[in-house]
Design brief:
The complex is a heterodimer of chains A (193) and B (129).
Chain A: H1 3-11, H2 16-32, H3 41-49, H4 67-86, H5 97-105, H6 118-121, H7 129-149, H8 153-162, H9 166-191
Chain B: H1 2-11, H2 17-24, H3 30-51, H4 72-88, H5 92-101, H6 106-123
Classes of the chains: A mainly alpha (193), B mainly alpha (129).
Chain lengths: 193, 129
């Protein structure tokens, strides 16, 4: 295979059968390094570092033991930067036509023209109170929910299910129940106005 | 390794709000393929590692502490997270990756995720677990 066609493949969106095994590999490597794969733990560590232990025992942890995971997160930020800057030519998302139609019915213009809907994430729209409230509530639910459940997609869905943990299966069922409720029940109320 | 994680999730569009929406509408196999194949390979690998009693590089037991068996916290907490995942289109990993990708509005989501974490820390003693 020539160098040229190899880069052409890299520039394309990567298929699931490449991404899934790579994610599993990252988890194996973290286990071998004596760590565990879980991103939402960083939210707790950051709160501890910001002085959270004055307010709750939940933040009385030795944050220095979690530094590796913060470094992992910094790596994730850099990875996002590299992927965008050097490995992607076109960040259109090839959505199912019925997804596009559903989103257009909710008022989204040109769904999939980039990774995130500009209606919610373009920096110019952040002064729109409705957009700001959506972002704040979304983030709050992610932070509160993942810590309440003790893990997120990486900790429960990937690590937990790989270890055949029943609690993680319950958590993943919860993730999906919440996500389905949001998309099917609340989205029409939030966006269709 | 964090860099690899960021690149994979960005290149496979897992950080895309649209892909999460599509997943919850059951209109694409992509996200199910990603999570499903990661879990399938993960199960095989972790079971082999356990059976072979693989030690970490530092010759310690692997970090596979089983979670305590509870139901309320996983179902309720999971449900709350699921709603946030669908609304913001990002779970905690992509939150970080999207900053690097150049979507700076996501900093608002990270800020409120930290606030949510903080509020959980204040309330956790009073919540059913």
């Amino acid at each position: 295979m020539s160098q040229f066609s190899f880069m052409e493949i890299i520039y394309q969106p990567w298929p699931w059968y490449i991404a899934g095994p790579l994610i599993a590999t990252i988890m194996f490597l973290l286990l071998y390094a004596g760590k565990s794969f879980g991103m939402s733990d960083n939210l707790r560590t950051l709160c501890t570092m910001a002085g959270g232990k004055k307010f709750s025992d939940y933040f009385k942890i030795d944050w220095k033991s979690k530094t590796w995971n913060l470094i992992f997160s910094v790596g994730a930020v850099l990875g996002g930067f590299f992927a965008h800057r050097y490995l992607t030519l076109d960040d259109r998302v090839d959505l199912n036509p019925s997804t596009i139609m559903d989103l257009e019915n909710l008022g989204f213009i040109n769904p999939g023209s980039e990774y995130l809907p500009p209606e919610l994430f373009s920096i110019g729209n952040i002064s729109d109170p409705k957009v700001l409230i959506i972002l704040i509530i979304g983030g709050f639910l992610v932070g509160f929910g993942t810590r309440y459940a003790g893990g997120c997609t990486s900790g429960h869905a990937i690590s937990g299910l790989s270890n055949l943990q029943v609690p993680s299966l319950i958590a993943v069922i919860g993730f999906f129940a919440g996500g389905l409720a949001m998309v099917h029940l609340f989205f029409p109320l939030i966006f269709n106005s | 390794m964090g860099i690899a994680f960021g690149v994979v999730l960005a290149k496979a569009e897992i950080i895309s709000w649209f892909r999460i929406y599509e997943m919850f509408k059951f209109q694409s196999f992509h996200m199910y393929g990603v999570i499903g194949s990661a879990v399938l390979i993960g199960i095989i690998g972790v079971q082999v590692m356990k059976y072979q009693k693989v030690k970490s590089y530092y010759n310690e037991d692997l970090e596979l502490q089983p979670k305590k068996m509870q139901i309320a916290r996983y179902l309720i907490g999971g449900g709350i997270f699921g709603m946030g995942w669908a609304l913001s289109g990002a779970c905690p990993g992509p939150l970080f990756i999207l900053v690097g990708y150049g979507y700076y509005s996501i900093l608002v989501v990270i800020g409120s995720a930290l606030l949510g974490t903080f509020v959980y820390g204040l309330l956790y003693k009073y919540l059913p677990h």
